[in-house]
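Worked example 3 (structure in, sequence out).
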């Protein structure tokens, strides 16, 4: 699972999304696949090109590390990365939103797949500190690649940092607008108490 943003849902926006990254044995390469969409029934375009859901390109999907880097370096306006354009909540757009995705992508690569609306540690910062931004720059540098480019030992190290590591309890936000709840993750993560 890769956490990131897709450009093929709303023209001009990069929306919250997850895809699968799979190894294509025949072509000897990694490819991004969107298993949620019906290839025949939901033709979409991005950047003037028809989207092939079985082989997404850089202009169609950016993993969280790529999106964070693009926003931080000014290649893409950070405000174009959102959960949904009509939601005007600071945590659901721009750098704070990308911060949460960077951490979710990292822990997912470390085989702990969280819901995109689960928050903990640095993901709960309303205003990102320079220290947090620097940490996320480092995480993005490690996770922005694909498949074999990603160094597993570095992912494990970063996923164990305080504030990044998934704790025994996380805050789960309701994407429909209900109140947040706390969720015990200990048993699901095999944490011994």
């Amino acid at each position: 699972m890769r956490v990131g943003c897709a450009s093929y849902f709303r023209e001009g926006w990069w929306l919250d999304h997850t895809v699968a990254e799979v190894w294509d044995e025949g072509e000897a390469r990694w490819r991004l696949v969107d298993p949620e969409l019906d290839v025949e029934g939901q033709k979409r375009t991005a950047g003037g090109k028809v989207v092939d859901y079985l082989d997404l390109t850089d202009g169609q999907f950016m993993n969280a590390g790529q999106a964070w880097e693009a926003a931080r370096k000014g290649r893409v306006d950070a405000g174009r990365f959102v959960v949904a354009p009509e939601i005007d909540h600071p945590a659901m757009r721009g750098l704070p939103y990308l911060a949460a995705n960077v951490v979710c992508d990292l822990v997912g690569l470390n085989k702990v797949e969280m819901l995109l609306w689960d928050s903990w540690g640095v993901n709960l910062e309303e205003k990102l500190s320079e220290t947090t931004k620097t940490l996320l720059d480092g995480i993005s540098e490690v996770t922005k690649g694909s498949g074999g480019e990603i160094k597993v030992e570095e992912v494990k190290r970063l996923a164990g940092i305080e504030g990044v590591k998934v704790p025994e309890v996380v805050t789960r936000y309701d994407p429909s607008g209900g109140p947040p709840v706390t969720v015990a993750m200990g048993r699901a993560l095999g944490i011994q108490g």
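Notes: Helices lie at 64-72, 94-109, 130-143, 152-159, 186-189. The CA atoms of residues 77 and 143 lie 21 Å apart.
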